[in-house]
Design brief:
heterodimer; A: alpha/beta; Rossmann fold; 11 strands; globular; B: mainly alpha; two-stranded antiparallel sheet
Chain lengths: 255, 356
Amino acid sequence: MAWLMLQDLTVALGGRDVVRGVSAEVNEGELVVIIGPNGAGKTTLLRTIAGLVAPKGGSVKVLGHDPAKVGRRVVARELAYLPQQYELAFPFAVEEVVLLGRYAQQRGLGIASEADVEAARQAMVACDVAELATRRFDELSGGEARRVIIAQALCQGAKCLLLDEPTAGLDPAHARSVFAMLRQQCDRGAAAVIVTHDLDLALRFAGAVWLVAGGRLAARGAPADVLTGIATRQAFGVEIHVGDLPGGGRFAVPV
Amino acid sequence: MSGFISGSRNSRTGRLTATRLAFSLLACLTIAVVVAMLAPHIGINYDRGGHYLEFLGLDAYTPGTAAHQVFWIRVPRVLAAMLVGGALAGAGCALQALLRNPLAEPFTLGISSGSSLAAVLAIRIGLEGSLGGAGVGAAALLGAIATLLVVWRLASIGRQLPPATLVLAGVTMSMFCSAASVLIQYTSNFTEISRMIRWMMGGLDSMQLSAVGYGTIPIVLGLAALIAYARELNALAAGPEVAASLGVAVARTQAVVFIVSSLLVGAAIALAGPIGFIGLIVPHALRAVIGPDHRVLVPASVFGGAVLLMVCDTLARTVTAPAQLPTGAVTAVLGGPFFVMILIRQKRHAAMWGRG
């Protein structure tokens, strides 16, 4: 059984169908990248999978059940969602922010156990923010803050990761290491669905690419095929060139 | 001011541990108990030679002495200050977390004015005479809840209002309720007017031990409920969607915390009239010292509010003795400049951090 199963999913926001008839699935170990022009419905699709928006038609199944129907605590153990915008209202320290990810595992006052602290430490190391642990979140740079909240999502220990533009604002090296880290998570048995505009990283790290345009799933398949396909050219209005790198491997650029 | 901010950074050591929680709460409790035990001893005594500051001391515990009598007149007042201060600061802290707004507070949200309007109306239609003080208290409670509901409705339009807009909504609410109160006063007779004005100043004098008794259980239960939701309030700092993805039942948390906070504020106002700014000052100052983790911040605010109001009330009945100041006036005089200070600092930081 697929971990994430979308069947004929239609989502309306403000009376307008933003996502229309999307059917797809994500399996264990898979890293799926969603690409598409601005306003195509990528974020809404991700929020619907996270159970934060109820679909108008069709269904979402996360490990067999509907995320909008079961308790949030159950969903949180299976699925971590990172929105594009993340604003913290109070000046928590970095480690406290990452430990918020353990909410679903904790009871009572939720004083962090050794397991919680260890999970937070591993997540911070994976996102290269371990040395920021005692810094205040509001005093970090945009890119550092981004990596901290990715660590929070990771610390949640969920099987599926839904990340909305996780590398926006990251320098090229950190953007790549975030994708490499997510690839590693998937190789260890997680699954990830990532919205990004970085086509080159999509080509290098994704197992499959979904193209969302006008609310529809316009194309899906192997990264190179989708990126160079006619649907992608139509959606973006530019052609994507996929070429070979001299030292092996490939790259993708819009031309 | 920058020294104060950097000082706050060094004074915390990251995540909350059981030891730090226990130590912080024990320290807060100790201070609150010490202040509560000292406050009834302090007062002004006067004779033909003038008036002077007096500490009752051991005489207070000897039945039959004058000191013993004075002590027991002051005890209900100190207990009420403790209860009201704790309720206002605890509710203020929770409302700030819930509305994700460091400026949220019963006074700035217009709740005090709303409940004053209800109380003024109750005095005008003679509810005070028929039901005793309880009628005005009940009206104040209902007024507080009604105002909070309006503000809540405003705050949830478009999911979330920016801090400044929410405060503007509160100000609008305040102005409307004040204007309505003035209109009612205009149609009232002299006795009613003086009673209304006295009530609107907020005070703890003429506090009966029985009133404190009625207030204790609901307020303690309400505060316990807020503390039980402290972890959810932490997660809500990252916004309702992130909190939901972390596993928080957001709608239930918002409903419970909001209703409980409204009832706490209403109960506090019913007991003591509108006492302003306690709910703003205390969580703000404490956040700078112990950090924003609500598991320690909410209970610490409760104790902090209790201490601050006991101190303010002691000042209210000593600084101009033999005349007494209304306690609400003392807290407002302290709170006004504090509020302006936060506004200025937030303007400087662009974002609305509750950095105290």
